[in-house]
Design brief:
Elements lengths: L2 H38 L12 H30 L1 H9 L4 H42 L11 H28 L2 H6 L13 H23 L8 H37 L6 H16 L1 H26 L1 H8 L4 E3 L2 H13 L4 E14 L6 H7 L2 E8 L12 E5 L3 H7 L5 E6 L4 E10 L6 H4 L4 E4 L1 H10 L9 E8 L5 H10 L9 E2 H54 L4 H34 L8 H32 L2
Parallel strand pairs: 3-7, 4-6
Antiparallel strand pairs: 1-8, 1-9, 2-3, 2-5, 2-8, 4-7, 5-6
Length: about 650
């Protein structure tokens, strides 16, 4: 028996345990190569003027390397420890540590670079599809073709060769420092099997849950007006992040054991087979894996949260654009209006012209906003004001007014109320008004409103206010001119006429169609990158949890043998394992989803106008993909149980 025979025999024997590792490696290489190929693709030059495509993909490729490197090093650490007895036996039969390292290095070389070649091929084959998806998301009309990049190939080989060298260095260090006796004990010392709950663990368990809930509570107050200064907001964010992460670690370290121990005590120690196989095992397994589970949960929550926020912006692009520019086109100068409308008439495009005279006036709104915000700003803010006659369907009495164009962000941050009393400050007199209501629909563009809600007043009041307006505040006031196109099918041609005038880059000139396209392109690229980074982390973290379940299954195999000899059927054991997998995969998933929900809930209104649909779709997709690994681990346990007798 020579070394080469040992290499191929061990590779064949361990291949059934490596298949998911190989899949994750192939997937990671394919995704990285596809990203780098996009970075060097000539078609990306066409979109650099509208989005920072190359820079975004380059940053994503760096993050992708970090995720994959950490995963491969951790997975290798799990597998090398699982092979401790095998390495010990090699030493017992006389093989030197150098020869053992050579065997392992050769196995990894075949497995690693074989997977890398497959991954490069799949990455090249899928790069055109990824480019088509990217162009579709960001709305770029460009031809996506299949281009092989030598630069991308060289960069991929260098990156993954460097990771391979790190893996070999880890293996060499492990073999060098282990004695024969320690190799036979290495697996048994990796898990905590202490069965007694101490007072300190009870305190840790209670503290973990308390810190998480405290972080959630502060997050609900983050933009509610409780914190108005930048340093207060920063400290609040640090407090939320710290309490949730530390709380999550303590949750896995003690809270899970504490809760499950309470369940066990409530039953007087008499547990069913399902409870023995699930609760008793998880109580102590999660404690020893607390740091790993904390990292997985935190990064999962980050991925879900970022993807939800970017999808909220993408999903709400049209509605958000209408809040900043309510009409199809917004212009300022009369000569430009004349030229644009003449072009529309020449093309036979029917349109409607909307004009609203806008004045700016300081308003005391201290009785309508949050106390802390009112104290910080003295309750005085400049408001744009328009006449009720210029807003169709609006009627107000002389002593009343309506707020319109209020965003969710302003309502949340300023705590502005729907009804209440305010006072307008003129040059020589004040005008008290009662606000009857508030709605989201904008009636003027962001150029005039500066982000503040617009006040709609009675015509007679508006005329009096015009006499009392303060000249210094009228720099952003004037005549708002909006143009709506009657036939949606002719909107694209009208937009071409607008763009031909070369006024779209001037302040106050807005094309709604362009606004929507720009927002979708910017957020579409972010969503594309975050989605694939999130998918990479999902695959790698799911694999890590699966590998941990493989190790636990091998350790618990003697217990399954005893239970089978006692008369329990394979079905009895499988039902218990199903409960165990629900907890093993379900607890990190639920905690991660909960973290991401409160993170998104605290500031979603800065990103768009719709919360539930985008967030629910992202969470549902993440849950479905994550569940695949729980199902795979269940199949593995079924095989272990079947082989136990």
């Amino acid at each position: 028996m020579n070394i080469n025979y040992l290499i191929f025999r061990n590779l064949k024997k361990n291949l059934k345990n490596y298949y998911l590792y190989v899949f994750a490696l192939v997937f990671s290489v394919a995704l990285y190569f596809a990203f780098v190929t996009l970075q060097y693709d000539p078609a990306m030059e066409e979109i650099k003027g509208s989005v920072k495509g190359a820079a975004g993909l380059s940053a994503a490729s760096v993050l992708l390397v970090v995720i994959v490197a950490v995963f491969l090093l951790y997975a290798n650490n799990i597998f090398i420890k699982r092979r401790g007895k095998e390495i010990g036996l090699f030493q017992l039969v006389g093989l030197t540590k150098g020869k053992i390292f050579r065997i392992l290095s050769s196995e990894n070389l075949i497995l690693y670079f074989g997977s890398m070649l497959i991954g490069i091929f799949l990455g090249f084959a899928s790069s055109r599809l990824l480019l088509m998806v990217l162009f579709k998301i960001i709305g770029v009309n460009a031809q996506a073709s299949l281009n092989f990049s030598v630069q991308a190939l060289v960069q991929t080989v260098i990156v993954f060769a460097a990771i391979y060298l790190l893996i070999m260095l880890m293996n060499y260090s492990f073999i060098k420092r282990q004695s024969i006796l320690s190799l036979f004990r290495v697996v048994s010392t990796t898990e905590n099997t202490v069965r007694r709950m101490t007072l300190s663990q009870v305190i840790i368990g209670f503290l973990g849950i308390s810190l998480i809930l405290f972080g959630y509570y502060v997050s609900t107050k983050l933009f509610s007006g409780a914190f108005v200064k930048m340093n207060e907001l920063f400290l609040a964010m640090v407090l939320i992040l710290g309490s949730v992460i530390v709380g999550t670690y303590l949750f896995y370290k003690g809270s899970v054991s504490f809760v499950f121990n309470m369940i066990r005590k409530s039953k007087g120690g008499y547990l069913s087979l399902n409870e023995v196989l699930s609760l008793s095992s998880i109580m102590f397994r999660m404690k020893s894996n607390a740091l790993l589970l904390t990292i997985i949960t935190t990064v999962s929550a980050l991925a879900i949260g970022l993807l939800s926020l970017s999808y909220i912006s993408y999903y709400s692009a049209e509605e958000s654009s209408r809040q900043t520019a309510p009409n199809h086109f917004t212009l300022l100068e009369e000569k430009d209006v004349t030229a644009f409308t003449a072009g529309l008439r020449k093309e036979g495009i029917d349109y409607t012209e909307i004009r609203r005279d806008v004045i700016m006036m300081d308003a005391d709104v201290s009785r309508m906003i949050g106390a802390s915000v009112a104290e910080e700003s003295d309750g005085i803010i400049p408001l744009p004001i328009v006449d009720e006659k210029s807003v169709a369907g609006t009627e107000v009495s002389p002593g009343e007014a309506w707020f319109t164009g209020s965003s969710d962000a302003m309502k949340q941050f300023m705590g502005i109320q729907s009804t209440g009393d305010l006072e307008l400050k003129g040059r020589t007199q004040s005008f008290p008004l009662h606000v009857k209501g508030l709605n989201k629909e904008s009636v003027i563009s962001l150029y005039f409103s500066k982000g503040a809600p617009t006040l709609v007043v009675d015509q007679s009041v508006f005329e009096r206010l015009a006499q009392e307006k303060v000249p210094e505040l009228q720099r952003s006031a004037g005549m708002y001119i909006g143009i709506d196109i009657a036939d949606p099918n002719k909107l694209a041609r009208a937009n071409e006429i607008f763009m031909d005038m070369k006024v779209d880059d001037q302040p106050g000139y807005v094309s709604l169609l362009n606004n929507i396209a720009v927002q979708k392109s910017n957020m579409g690229l972010i969503m594309f990158i975050v989605a694939f980074l999130g998918l990479t982390f999902l695959i790698t973290s799911g694999c890590i949890l699966y590998f941990k379940q493989m190790g636990e299954g091998e350790e618990e195999k003697p217990s399954y043998t005893i239970l089978r000899k006692l008369g329990f059927t394979q079905g009895n054991l499988v039902r218990g394992i199903q409960f165990k997998q629900m907890f093993s995969f379900g607890i990190p998933l639920v905690v991660g989803l909960s973290h991401s929900y409160f993170a998104v809930q605290s500031g979603w209104f800065f990103f768009g106008t719709e919360l539930w649909t985008p967030m629910f779709l992202v969470m549902l997709l993440y849950t479905l993909l994550y569940s695949i690994f729980g199902i795979l681990s269940l199949f593995f346990y079924k095989r272990i149980i079947k082989e136990s007798l």
